[in-house]
Amino acid sequence: MTLPDNDNLRKEFDSDLENSIDLLSIEELRIKYLGRKGIIASLMESMKDLPDNEKPVFGKSVNELKKYFNTNYESALKKANSEKQSDSSPDFDNTLPGVEISLGKKHPLTQVWEEMLDIFTRMGFEVARGPEVETEYYNFTALNFPENHPARDMQDTLYITDDTMLRTHTSPVQIRTMLSTTPPVRVIVPGRVYRNEAISARSYCVFNQIEGLYIDKGISLADLKGTLISFAKQLLGSNVKTRFRASYFPFTEPSAEMDVSCIICEGKGCRVCKHTGWLELLGSGMVDPNVLRNVGYDPEVYSGFAWGLGIERTTMMRYGIKDIRYFYDGDLRFLEQF
Amino acid sequence: MKISLNWLSKYISIKKSPEEISELLTMAGLEVSSLKKGNSFDGVLIGEVKECTKHPNADKLSLCKVDIGADEELPIVCGAPNVRAGMKVPVATVGTVLPEDFKIKKAKIRGEESRGMICSEKELQISDSHEGIMVLPDEWKIGTPFSDLYDTSDTLIELDLTPNRPDALSHIGVARDLSAILNLDLQKPSFKLDESKVDASSEYSVEIEDKVGCPRFAIRIIKNVKIDKSPEWLSKSLRAIGIRSINNIVDASNYVLMELGHPIHTFDMDKLSGNKIIIRSSIKDEKVVTLDGIKHKLPEDTVLVCDEEKPVGIGGIMGLQNSEVSDDTINLLIECAYFDPGKIRKSSKKLGLYTEASKRFERGCDPNDIEFVLDRVCSVILETAGGELSKGIIDIYPSIIDKVKIRLRQKSVNSVIGMEVSETTVKEILNRLEYEIRSEKDDNYELLVPSFRPDVEREIDVIEEVARIVGYDKIPPSEHALIPLSSSPNNNESQNIKLKNMLVGFGFSEIYTNSLMPYKLWKLSGDSDEPVRVTNPISMDMECLRSSLMPRMLEAVSYNFNRQRKSVKLFEDGIVITPDKKSETGVEEIHKVAAIIAGELSSGNWIGENSSADYFFLKGVVEAYLKAIGFSTVTFTESSNNSYHNRYDIIDNGSKLGFMGEISQPVLKEFDLEVGVFYFELEVSLLLKEMKKDISFLEPSKYPSIMRDLSFIIDDSMQSEKLTAIFEGTNTDLLKSFKISSVYKGSPLKENEKSITYHLIFSSNERTLEESEIDKICEGIINVASDSLNANLRV
Question: Where are the domains of chain B?
Answer without folding.
Answer: 2-38+155-179, 44-148, 195-396, 405-470, 492-692, 706-793
